[in-house]
């Protein structure tokens, strides 16, 4: 059933049009409709207007350039400096808002996203498909596969939603408890709007109409050996389904291709992991042999596809307590993600391009 | 009405306030030491709630409402941690025992704290009244409050005719607050834990008095004032925000160093920089206040940020006053505008 819904999406078409088709839906892509070659489109496409403007002027923290493009250069620069200083002023005097979860929208938009964006655009050259499947308002639960030894896929998914969604929605990720134990990491995660993966937090966020992202595979997915790449692991206990059912929000399956190869995990130093209190300690062809240099991810080409939403509002209220339905829905989501993964893999020309 | 813990600022203020209410005939204020502030005409009875005399006081006065405010984290004057713990736990037991014996008691209000939730990275981001703590506080004031609440629950079971209200207050701040967190914010340079920026919630002293008043009277129409309620101002401040608003620089220290320094300071008996305090300043804590709004029908006058602003006004400016920093940034903005040769049409607003 679920497969039948997905297949006509961009199957059965030549590769060129398969790549181009979703690009037309994006506002940045639509300005470049004159291009016919798919390859340059791919490379230029994911640049949103803001990111392109930021590289022109090397001011560290600036506001979104809102001035008309016809104005003189120094006028825009001045505006940007003023914006940057206003931002600096607010930061220095503590005059900004955080929500109950510690999400600092201003810092995320202006600094943290700008830090992640080069990685997203230039390094992994992420291609986003099906972003229109994310509703413009109201709660929704995005369920994605998890891979890559370090949870970069979650961050890239966050940038993808932030930069490509027409309504400018923010993705609130649910993270493992390890994230909130580690110093620095927990601070950044909270400011990026992440919170602990537990049903209380997820329901509270969905109840507030937020877009919540979860990777139910958890450590099983992210820490799986390279030989098992793109094989979805067990989806936890399906808690995400009952959360979505209780809050009546659609589940949006999301498949991420490319993250598996950034750190090919060929071994797992279990003893060391246990000593450090981590769920696994990856051994890759470069890490830890080359030291910090070995921790540089491989520059793979990524594709993030958001699938068609699976509605959850047709069920009676007691459905959230029905384990059979939970398992069925979990399997449906899982299969849809797995199927899309295989399709994207078939379409992929190479790991790096 | 019988009020315990009146020798403290907050208890004294509550006693003075509650006497102005028309349906309060008489207020009996109890504490082990005579208060330094006046009690506005309330009858002060010097009694240690750790002793059975509290039972006699309660029987003689025939109070119908008992407000137990003597659950605190810091010793008054020069007491030790042991005596604080005894007052908190044994004192509560004695008081509850006395209440159980007294047929006149109809209402019990207990001042507790959101410390009962502990502070752990594995807790949900927002605690509701029913959230079980992932790791129970191992000691100190937090453990006291957990034990006190346990005894209060036992009492509520044994005396179902008594309306019991447990108020879990977030960190109380205000111009006159003498809580450990207030003394922390009074430090010229704030030591913080490196790599952690805890979320904090505050409640203003005025709101504390008001909510105690609401819960010590008959419930208003459409509200219920028995049960357990989280009391906190709206919104959240993170510690870095607090320090910037206060204008006090922070010194990030590694967690082991903070723990070690904390225990050293404690051993020397300089301050009560307790382990829970360090945990709070590491992981932070935010509570849900839906019950407070909808069931108790109380809306705090001050949000967390307003409470903190009021507290900051009461303190002097820090080493890096926010106004000075803002002024400096504005001057740079003016310079930049002049440098680019444009009239300063839009200054940094």
Automatic annotation (TrEMBL), chain A:
Domain of life: Bacteria
UniProt xrefs under SUPFAM superfamilies: Glycerol-3-phosphate (1)-acyltransferase (SSF69593)
One Pfam family of this chain: Acyltransferase
An example Gene Ontology molecular-function term: acyltransferase activity
Region (Disordered): 1-77
Matching InterPro entries: Plipid/glycerol_acylTrfase (IPR002123)
UniProt KW Transferase keyword: yes
Keyword Acyltransferase in annotation: yes
UniProt-recorded name of the protein: Acyltransferase family protein
Record's keyword terms, sorted: Acyltransferase, Transferase
